[in-house]
Design goal:
With about 90 residues, the chain is of the alpha+beta class. Helices cover about 25% and strands about 35% of the residues. It has a 4-stranded mixed sheet with strand order 1-2-3-4. The longest helix is centred in the N-terminal third of the chain and has 11 residues.
Length: about 90
Amino acid sequence: MCETIRSAWCRERSLHDVRVELTAMQGSRRTGGDWTRPDIVVLSMRTFKHWPGKYYDLWTFEIKPAGELSVIGVFEAAARFARRDALVLAFPCP
């Protein structure tokens, strides 16, 4: 899934300087709650032609297996949306 995000999702949004990290598989490490760690995190840096400086975006993804559509996944993604500008909840198609 990380490679799909890196190759397709980032390309569709014209994001070039990106770092994609799988953050879901960290075991029982304490993070502050059940819904505090996203599955995948993307950090991107953008520049604009008529706007000075560099701008960083942090994108978080909640990934669920095909066939496991539930309101829990929506709540997990929404819990992070409170501190982000965009909400992404992905369900891979079989």
